[in-house]
Amino acid sequence: MTGWREGKIFPILLVLATITVFWYVMAVVMNTPWQKDVYERAGTTDVSQTQFIKDTWSQERPVLPSPHQVAQEVWATTVEKKITSKRSLIYHAKITLSSSMLGFAMGTVLGILLAIAIVYNQALNKSLMPWIIASQTIPVLAIAPMIIVVLNAIGVQGLLPKAFISMYLSFFPIAVGMVKGLNSPETHHLDLMYTYSASASQSFWKLRLPSSLPYLFTSMKIAVAISLVGAIVAELPAGAVAGLGARLLAGSYYGQTIQIWSALVVASILAALLVTLIDLLGRFVNHRMGLSHG
Amino acid sequence: MPTIDVKELSLTFTTRDGPVHALSNINLSVQAGDFVSLIGPSGCGKTTLLRAIADLEQATSGSLLVNGVSPEEARLQRAYGYVFQAASLYPWRTIAKNIALPLEIMGIGRAEQQKRIKENLALVDLADFGKKYPWQLSGGMQQRASIARALAVEPNLLLMDEPFGALDEIVRDHLNEQLLSLWAKTNKTVVFVTHSIPEAVYLSTHIVVMSPRPGRIHEIITSDLPKDRPLNIRETPEFLALANRVREGLRAGHSEDVPV
C-alpha cells in the first residue's frame, strides 16, 4: 500500500495546520494588551485562562484577528452577500480581477513583442535590456500614483490606468522568459532551417515560437500573480471606492482588521486560482505539443 | 560535371586560443551517383567538410562547387538534403508533419505534400507511423523519419553526418542495409560521415580517409565491391582486405601527427 504520507495532500495539510496553530498562538499574544485593558476598565478580575484566550480570539477590532474570525468574515461577504452589494468581496474581487486581467493581457503582448525585438535585433538586445531591467527597480508604489495622475490628466480613467500598472509589472517576466524561450532551439534545429533556406519569419513561426511556449507559460504564471498585485496596489493611491485594494484601504482607515485580512485572503485565493489555471493551460499545451516528453 | 568539386580548400576557425586549421588543402571530386564516406578520428574535419558543402561553414580559401554552383546557391536551390547525427525532429510535429516541414517552407502545394509524405514514409518503412509523434518512436525509427524528411525535398545529393552514430549495432546494421537499398533505388549521390570502418566499407563506393591537425585527406580508396551488397559480404576476404586498407590508412594518418 502506498502511504498517504507520500501524496501531495499530506504535506500541504501539515503546513496549513502548522500555520493555523501559529496564527492562533500569535493572535493570543498580540491581542493580550488590549484584552487586559478591557478587563481593567470593566473591573473584571477573576477571568479563567480559557475565557481569556477565547476573548482574545473574538475581539471586534483585534490587532491580529483569529483565523475563524477571518473565515467567518470571508463567508459572510462572499456567500451570504449578493454579488451586486458594495459589501460583497466577490463584487470587489471582480473589479480588481478585470483590471488585472486586462493588464496581464497587455503585459503579455508587450513582453512578447519586446522579446521578439530583442532576439531579432542585436542593437536592441544591447540597448533595450538595461532599460527593461531598470524599469523594475523602481518601486511600484512610487510610480503607480504618477501613472494614474498622468493618465487622468490626458483623460484616461477607469479600468485602463489600473491595467497599466498591472502591465508595468507583468511584462517583465514575460519579456525575460520569452527572450530565453525564443533562443532555446538547439543548434541542429536551427541548422536544419538554414539548410532549407527558410526565411526569418518561417524560422520564427515554425521553430522559435513553438520552442518558446513552455518558457512563456512559466513566465505567465509569475506575471499573472504580480499583475493582481499591481491592480491592488493601483487601487491604493487612486482612492478607489471599489476593488480589493479599496477594501484594504477602507479597512485600514477604520481599523477594521478583520476586513483587511479577509480581503487579503480573497486576494491570495484569487492569485492561487489564476496561477493554477495558467499552469493547467500550460500543461495542456505542452502535452499537446509533445514537449512534456523531452 | 562532378556533383561536388573541392579544390585546394582550407578552412580556419578563429578561436580565443588562436586559429584552428580545421581543413587544409582538401581536393575531392564526387561524381553523380557516388556513395562517398568521410572517415577519420575526431578533429580530422570530416564534419566540417560536410558542413562546408552544405554552406553551414565558410571556406577560408580554395574553391568548392556543388552541382557546379557555390554552396550558397546550391542551398538556396535546395539541392541537398542534410541528415544530422540527432534525428532533429520537431517534437511538436507528428512524423508526417515533420516531413512536411521543408515542403511547407518551399511553398509546395498540399496535395503534392501529401504525396511526398506517403512516398517517403513508405521508402523508409514507416508507412503506418505518420500520425505518431517523435517521442513515440524508437531512436532508429526517428532517424529513418529524418532520412525520409531529407528525401522529401527530392535533392540529388544527400549529406549525412554520422546519422547512425548514436544507435546500437543491431539497429545500425539494419539501417545500413536499408540505406544501401534506398541508394540503389533512388540513385542519389551520398556523402556520409562516419568513424566506423565496417560501416564506411559496407556502404561506400569511395572511402575518404582523413587525418587530424590540420584536417586533411590522407587517402581516397575506391571500393571494388559489387553494388549489390548483402550484410554477410562483411565476412568475405575482399571486404576484410578493404577494411584493412582503411585501418592502415587511418593509422598512417595518425603517425604523421607531430607531437607539439
Outline of chain A: elongated
Number of strands of chain A: 0
How large, in whole angstroms, is the Cα Rg of chain A?
25 Å
Overall pLDDT level of chain A: 89
Our estimate of the beta-strand percent of chain A is under 5%
What proportion strand of chain B? 15-25%
Major beta sheet summary of chain A: none
Largest sheet of chain B: 6 strands, mixed
Q: How many separate structural domains of chain A?
A: 2
The tally of strands of chain B reads: 9
C-alpha geometry of chain B: globular
For the biggest β-sheet of chain B, the strand order reads 5-6-7-3-8-9
**Uncertain parts of chain B:** none
Helical percentage of chain B: 25-40%
What brief labels describe this structure?
heterodimer, A: 294 residues, mainly alpha, MetI-like fold, 2 domains, B: 260 residues, alpha/beta, six-stranded mixed beta sheet, 25% strand, globular
Q: Summarize this, please?
A:
By secondary structure, chain A is mainly α. Helices cover 77% and strands 0% of the residues of chain A.
Can you lay out the helices and strands and say which pair or pack?
The complex is a heterodimer of chains A (294) and B (260).
Chain A: H1 9-42, H2 49-56, H3 67-78, H4 89-120, H5 122-135, H6 140-153, H7 159-182, H8 187-195, H9 200-235, H10 244-253, H11 257-288
Helix pairs in contact in A: 1-2, 3-11, 4-5, 4-7, 4-9, 4-10, 6-7, 7-9, 9-11, 10-11
Chain B: E1 4-15, E2 18-30, E3 35-39, H1 46-53, E4 61-66, H2 71-76, E5 80-83, H3 95-106, H4 110-123, H5 139-152, E6 157-161, H6 169-186, E7 189-194, H7 197-203, E8 206-211, E9 216-222, H8 237-255
Parallel strand pairs in B: 3-7, 3-8, 5-6, 6-7
Antiparallel strand pairs in B: 1-2, 1-4, 8-9
